[in-house]
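Review session, final week

We close the course with one last complete record, chosen because it touches almost every idea we covered. It is Deoxyribose-phosphate aldolase, a protein from Jiulongibacter sediminis with 242 residues. Go through it on your own first, then we will talk.
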Amino acid sequence: MKQTIILIFLSITLWSCSSKEDQIIRQTISAHGGEAYKDMHVTFDFRGMHYDFTKNGGLYSYQRIQNDSLGNVISDILNNETFTRTINGEVQYLPDSMASKYSNSVNSVAYFFMLPDGLNDPAVNKEVTGTVKIKGQSYHQLKVWFDEQGGGKDHQDIFMFWINEKTNLIDYLAYSYETSGGGVRFREVIERHQVGEFTFQDYNNYGFEDAEYLLSDLPLALEDGSLPLLSEIRNENIQLLK
């Protein structure tokens, strides 16, 4: 009987913890776009390249278009099944290493552009690690990590999100990575674009290479001015298409 009570108590405790994370993520997704993420067609420009993203239920197609120095039109298309690169409309046959590099690049832009969509995927693990104040505002501090199965090529990356308790919007995010020697990045929202039902965001991008900073320490580093600014992340000419 005692063991049964303990098991019931543990089950209720685990369910409550899980429900807290799930509830915060649902509220955050709703604040940024909600159900509209499931069926969307959006285009925008980012760092001199044009992007065209389509989602329809569980199907997706992410396209990136750019011109090289000779005026050739390069198109990269990533969907559920494959990655394809064309130059002036002709399909290119790429080594696996290059195809992986280009597809990961397109997927990375899609991932960050459409956050927080995707944070409720099966391969995502999450934990609320506390409530913190940044610049006088109160935030849920949410840690996110990924299963190897279904977590993508960079499944070892760890993310932290600071979600405004009043607006449910992501005001700050950070992540650590291991590729190219590793490092950390911290992003601070500098502008929001309200386009239809969506709230898309631009960021100041801070970070260190080869650093062993705890992600939870980065907001303090921002406030005391010790975070080096690396770049601005701005999405331009955002349009929703039918």
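Two points worth writing down before the exam:
The first helix runs from residue 2 to 32.
The helical segments are 2-32, 96-113, 218-223.
Good luck, everyone.
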